[in-house]
Amino acid sequence: MFFGTFQAWGRGFRGNRRQKIMLSPTAKVMPKMRREPGAMRRPGCEFTTHVLWETRTFSERCARIHLSYEFQIPFCMIRLLACAGALLAMFASTGLRAQDTFQVGNTTLTATNVASGIQLPWEILWGPDDFLWVTSRPGTVYRINPETGATTTVLTKSVTNNGSGEPGMLGMAMHPEWETTPKVFIVYTTGSTWNGTERLSVFDWNGSSLVNEEVLLSLPAAGIHNGSRLLVLPDNTLLMTTGDVGDGGASSQNLSSLNGKVLRLNLDGSIPSDNPTPGSYVYSHGHRNPQGLAMGPGGIIYSSEHGQSNNDEVNIIEPGRNYGWPNVEGVCNTSSENSFCAANNVREPIDTFSPCAAVNGLIWYNHPAIPEWQNCLLLSVLGGFALNDKRLSVLSMSEDGMSVTGETQWFASYGQRIRDVAVNPYTGAVYLAFNGTSYPGSGPNIIKEFRNMDYVPVTSVTGCRYPGALNYDANATEDDNSCQFAGCTDPTALNYVPWANVTTTCMYTAPCPEDVNGDGATTVSDMLLVLGAFGDVCN
User: What's the CATH superfamily of 101-451?
Assistant: First the structure.
């Protein structure tokens, strides 16, 4: 398996007289291999490998069998072959190399396996305790040491899980005041596959496990389209995405239903008094199956959403807006869609993907460790019907964060579905949850780190650590409660932003009500929209 020279002291076939045996096998070698932190040690021998461009010592020891430099020649050869076979089996079983490098502009990213064997990972996030937290759809929550890969189970629940569908243990978020209120919010489904219940619960963290469940919200669940992503906002409210449970969008346009929505609630489960509709959890509606939530600069909320067969979407979530489903897919570009959009306050997506790529978890990246990705959205992609576009999409954004200006695609060479993405706030490393080659459960299921090894983190700096804040400091290791969020702070204004603490211009009447399509000008297009909708009954 390796270019190299194996040296072994052994006993020859002529009695017990020692003789030095030089073995010089010739074979291929995986570049820059090393045992990853936390990885299980595999049976092997100690030897020296001479790689084409470097020489390094590759040391692998058996966990149960400790080999000596002095042993019978046949025994040595068997062990050497076993070593190579074990390594081949290891890489064949994972489908991913132990370590790779990727060139991103002038930045070299080193990819490392952090953890494996987590069945169907759904959510991965960097916790306030500086551990990785992962939900596994069959009903488990794991806590992973990112340095060693040591993985512990912190919660196990009986959930709906049919192996290949979409129910189970899903979204997760941490309480923003972790030091005084160590709680974890989790979404999971229970009951039958097609007539189940989706629950939003909060658990206490006792230092080793999640206990004392309190159910905050319950709504219908199904085998598909359950949404379930969570995002804690700077005003200590919680957003939760929900899907249309496969009902074709009937629930999405029904404001009395909690399905097909983005919901907003207080951390105790109550309804915020400043929600768009008093007494309702609904923050936005007209959603099919929103799979990602992230906050960008100035408090902009981004969401990724599955389309039916075309038009996966990246949206900016605004209170009270309609996102079109099932009447509109993607942008408003047909006669019927234009009419619906004009009459129903539809917010068009800032990016679409056709055919569907199955976009999933996303996060705003603003860290100096990978300067080429700063101020970009990192979007995990499962791959659509063809399953040939599984990747991490890096979406370049305009300076104000309101539009997508470009896309680069990464890690498609692995051929693995990418379910979610997280970022280490200290090193800037990116963590991806790989979720099968062709369908959920097909394997491998691996948490992988992509890190700029040349970046040296700042050891201790206080500042704003919220990536969506105006004064976000990527080098800050301790938050000083100085985060600033721009927006209108007047609850009576049309553009009120509940979590804003830096006042910008408030609008009390539409600046140009004749601008029906919202392109900043009143043109013939607006007139055609009005004529097309003439006579319609407005809801």
Answer: TolB, C-terminal domain (2.120.10.30)
